[in-house]
Hints:
By secondary structure, this protein is α+β, with helices and mostly antiparallel strands. Helices cover about 20% and strands about 45% of the residues. It has a single domain (about 1-134), classed as Roll (Pnp Oxidase, Chain A), CATH 2.30.110.10. Strands 1, 2, 3, 4, 5, 6, 7 and 8 form an 8-stranded antiparallel beta sheet that branches.
Amino acid sequence: xxxxxxxxxxxxxxxxxxxxxxxxxxxxxxxxxxxxxxxxxxxxxxxxxxxxxxxxxxxxxxxxxxxxxxxxxxxxxxxxxxxxxxxxxxxxxxxxxxxxxxxxxxxxxxxxxxxxxxxxxxxxxxxxxxxxxx
Length: 134
């Protein structure tokens, strides 16, 4: 899990894929946080992505750095605890102007049953991905 955290923090931006009906939706995200041995992301409850996750919590995350990239398959679980919200916001003070713990809009979700597959564009022949389950 720490390897996934480090990789996503290094890239600064990753892409989160959700599904609404039969239509995939992909957008950039930048928050990744470890709290109580779980990886968390953050969004606003007023956003479409929040509604999509509520309807179908199965997501994928994809990020790349240089020749290396990762794809993470997971189920997102909403954590309404003020402690989890504040912990993530403490790690991302730039969000303070938009979100507060317990404001009703701030949403933190942790990755459950996650599988991360690490790949490299530079390997010849293409190597099997290195897999991390957490």
